[in-house]
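hiii, so i know i said id send this last week but things got crazy w the move. better late than never?? heres the sequnce for the chain we talked about at the cafe, plus the structure i predicted for it. fair warning i was half asleep when i ran it
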Amino acid sequence: MIIKKIKTTAKDLLTDGSVSLIIGYGINGPGDVTPVFIKDPDDVEKLVWNDQCYYNLIRYLSDRDFIEQNNGSIGIIIKGCDQKSLKVLLSESQVNRDKIKVIGVTCKGLMDSDGNVLAKCEACDVVYPDKDFCDVIIGEEVKKKEKEKDFSDIDEIDSMDLPDRKKFWDNFFERCLRCYACRNICPLCYCKECIMDQHNPQWVLPSASVVGNRLFHIVRAYHLTGRCVDCGECERVCPIGMPLRKINRKIIKVVKERFDFESGKDQEQKSPLTRYRENDSEDFII
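okay and structure toks below
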């Protein structure tokens, strides 16, 4: 019933001219779920919805060139983690909400190829999209999962002494290809020119090396501080299996502890690193 409603909604929006493009999920040749872009109402049959709709489609809304090429309103299908990403973009004035038709779909958790719920879904607290945020909601209403944030995996790494912690991460930095798949799939990495691509001045050597790779991942983590919503796409696409969520969850934990802030909850709230408050606590500054 969910996919039928998705197709009907998409067709209605395209037919009445409410949108000129629908961004959703479809099946490619080998049978994998991938993003699809629907402009013809008759093509809505290509849309699918299942527990392998991994891709965070908000990535396309943070691509200014893509938006310009598709002038007009866009309809987009979102899950809970996608919703949080969109709220961050709105808080940073990167998306014109009036141009977007948000189709929220109930997501009870995505599965890997072995039928196991993804770790990021176990930690997610947005199963049912916000009624006051989405233009259309598809799927039965599910009560919000109230759960305390579990950072035991981060605490385990923090408990290591510095040499062991460095060894743990350098094991991955040594194998990092610097392919930038993590950066390119992230909905919140939308700079026209990334600092990693700059040549004058050149901040980081372009060739893969332990030092350069370490710097890349530290800089990227810093740029996501107070912004990352833990959608997990960076880790999913990493060809060497680097546990990138652990890096991002570390900064999520610090921001929560220091500023009592969680990104993606409210599009009206700015990240702590982008705003100034006179009553900010300073007792943690050395």
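btw The longest strand covers residues 21-27. thought thatd interest u
miss u guys!!
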